[in-house]
Structure formats: structure tokens, C-alpha cells
TrEMBL record:
Keywords recorded for this protein, A-Z: Membrane, Transmembrane, Transmembrane helix
PANTHER family: G-PROTEIN COUPLED RECEPTORS FAMILY 1 PROFILE DOMAIN-CONTAINING PROTEIN, SERPENTINE RECEPTOR, CLASS X
Pfam families, alphabetized: 7TM_GPCR_Srx
Regions that span the bilayer: 27-51, 63-82, 102-130, 142-164, 195-221, 241-262, 274-294
Residue ranges occupied by any 7TM GPCR serpentine receptor class x (Srx) domain in the UniProt entry: 39-295
InterPro entries linked: 7TM_GPCR_serpentine_rcpt_Srx
Protein name: 7TM_GPCR_Srx domain-containing protein
Organism the protein comes from: Steinernema glaseri
Superkingdom of origin: Eukaryota
Length: 334
């Protein structure tokens, strides 16, 4: 009798509805999520501003950075204009399809951003290990192929939800996190989502960590064996960009790791919710912060400091030749 009652009371998408009234906790979470999305969105615009106006980023590294920023935009927009506001409203008539679409939109762009960390790390590895071959390896054709491949991979991953229905995830305004959308009362959780998240964690996080360790090993070797080469301006710039990338990767490992651990978990703590949900966009803010304040080209350009802003044609790998991406180096008098 109880099973029949539960079946008859089942409403698809009920997990995605608001509570009908707003609590103080809803206001805190909703405001924080909306504000985080807006700040991250502004940070993405700042990234594009740097990439467009600084010739130092008219190169493969800047191209990958731009694409990774595009990946960040998907989650930024969803947080700023959808999940944050519906948390503040707590409507009981949210169409499940719209909620699920918002999740898939953010996930598609988030997956692109996730894999672009791997691309940026490989870019830095080649710049440090094979400076003479950097231009030959990272030509325009290869860069475009890599980006297209990553985008297609992201769309293929998300399309699995269409091939294997009843695995959908959506945002719950009441719980302030992504939850499994049941197709029937008997279902417990999504079988597909944990696999996808673990794949992203393994490829983008663990894979990137191994690449960065290899790059660090080469930097340490050069530091010990050749002070002249280590103190080269171009090489130190490569080191600086590598360190910035590592700081961004550490944040990504922590947040995506928390998503894997707490995905579809019941009775998740407030800290776990903030780390596994809002933390994803918060690391996008940190990415912009690291690039802006730990990179002198960006810092000088943003704050107009110094009598001259030296804008190199591209972030050259040590001893590597100039590339076809930009014209020759120039100094802009300020």
C-alpha cells in the first residue's frame, strides 16, 4: 500500500522546485551565488580585455587562456542569472527542462574549462623543455585543432545524458546544490554523473599535476646547472606563467575533488555545499586574480604603472624564435 501511495504521489522534477517561501539561509546562499557569478563574469571580461589589448598574449598561450575563459563564462552566466536568483525567489513552478538545461549548459562550458587546464599545462611544458621547437609545435593549425577537439569532447560527454536518460542532474533551490532528478520513486542516484566527474578529475586534475611535475623538474634542473639560462628574461617569464598555472590547478583539484566526493550525497554540510557548488565559480575569480596581480604585464597595463610598458610580441619560450602570431616586440611609451 505504501509503495502504491509513493508511486501515485511521485512528481517528476519535484527536487528542482523551491520551497514556496524564502528563509534567511536562502537569502545568504542566493546572494552569495549571484554575487559570485557576477564577479566571475566581470573577471572573464577583464581576461578578454587583457588578451585583446596586450600583444604579449597574442600567441598560443593567450589563445588557450581565451578559450579557457570562454569555458568559465558558461558557469558564470548560469550562476549569475539563474541559480542565484531562483534561490532567492524559491518558486514552486520551475520547469524541470529549464533547470536541467541550465545544468548541462554550465557543465558543457565547465568541461571545456576543465580540459583547457590540461592544454595550458602542455603548452608550458613544451615552452620549458623544447623551446627551440615551441613555435613549430604550437602553430595556429594545431592550436585550433586542440580547441575544436576539446569542444567536441565536451559536447559528446554531455550528449551521453540524451543517450542514457534518467541520469539528469539539476539545481535544487531548497538544498542549494545540484541534485539527481528521479524518473521514478525507486531510483537512488545518477550512475552517469559520478563517472563523468571522475573522468574530468583524472584527466584534467591528475593528468595536469603529472605534467606540471615534469615541467617543474626541468625548471629545477636548469636552475641548478645554468644560472645564465635560469636568469634569462624569457625563461623567467615562462616560469612565472607556469607558477600561475600551478596555483590555478591546485584550486581546481580541490574543488573538482569535492564535487566528486559530495556528488549526490545526502545531508551535505554547508561547507561542502559552498566548496562543491559555489567553489567552482569562485576558482574562476581566483584565476583572474592570479593572472592579473602575479603577472607584471597585466598589472602594469591595468594600473598604468611605470614610465614604459614593454609589450613583448609574445611570451617567448627560452631561446625560441619569434612566431607568426604577432609582429615584432615593441615598447609603448606611457
Amino acid at each position: 500500500m505504501n509503495n502504491e501511495l509513493n508511486t501515485s504521489d511521485f512528481v517528476y522534477g519535484s527536487e528542482l522546485q523551491g520551497r514556496g517561501y524564502v528563509t534567511q539561509t536562502d537569502i545568504i546562499f542566493g546572494t552569495f551565488t549571484t554575487a559570485t557569478g557576477i564577479v566571475a563574469l566581470c573577471g572573464a571580461m577583464l581576461n578578454f580585455y587583457f588578451i585583446k589589448n596586450l600583444k604579449a598574449f597574442h600567441n598560443p598561450f593567450g589563445f588557450f587562456w581565451a578559450v579557457r575563459t570562454v569555458g568559465e563564462l558558461g558557469s558564470d552566466i548560469v550562476y549569475a542569472i539563474y541559480t542565484g536568483p531562483i534561490t532567492l525567489v524559491q518558486s514552486t513552478s520551475i520547469p524541470p527542462g529549464i533547470n536541467i538545461f541550465a545544468y548541462h549548459l554550465a557543465m558543457t562550458f565547465g568541461y571545456i574549462q576543465c580540459l583547457m587546464h590540461w592544454g595550458v599545462s602542455v603548452n608550458r611544458l613544451v615552452a620549458v623543455w623544447f623551446p627551440f621547437y615551441y613555435d613549430r609545435i604550437f602553430n595556429k593549425k594545431l592550436c585550433v585543432i586542440v580547441v575544436i577537439g576539446i569542444c567536441l569532447d565536451a559536447f559528446m560527454i554531455v550528449s551521453l545524458y540524451l543517450l542514457f536518460p534518467c541520469n539528469h542532474i539539476g539545481y535544487s533551490p531548497q538544498l542549494h546544490e545540484n541534485v539527481f532528478v528521479k524518473c521514478s520513486p525507486e531510483q537512488e542516484n545518477s550512475l552517469l554523473t559520478p563517472i563523468i566527474m571522475k573522468a574530468c578529475y583524472s584527466i584534467a586534475c591528475a593528468g595536469t599535476a603529472l605534467i606540471n611535475l615534469t615541467t617543474f623538474g626541468k625548471i629545477a634542473y636548469i636552475r641548478i646547472t645554468s644560472k645564465v639560462k635560469y636568469n634569462n628574461v624569457q625563461f623567467r617569464r615562462d616560469i612565472r606563467l607556469f607558477i600561475i598555472g600551478v596555483m590555478q590547478d591546485i584550486n581546481m583539484v580541490v574543488v573538482i575533488g569535492s564535487i566528486v566526493v559530495y556528488n549526490n550525497e545526502a545531508n551535505t554540510s554547508t561547507f561542502a555545499i559552498l566548496l562543491s557548488y559555489d567553489g567552482l565559480v569562485f576558482i574562476y575569480i581566483l584565476n583572474t586574480f592570479f593572472m592579473t596581480f602575479f603577472n607584471p604585464e597585466c598589472r602594469r597595463f591595468l594600473f598604468k604603472t611605470g614610465s614604459k610598458v614593454h609589450t613583448l610580441s609574445y611570451i617567448e619560450p627560452t631561446e625560441g624564435p619569434t612566431t607568426q602570431w604577432t609582429p615584432e616586440s615593441q615598447a609603448v611609451t606611457k
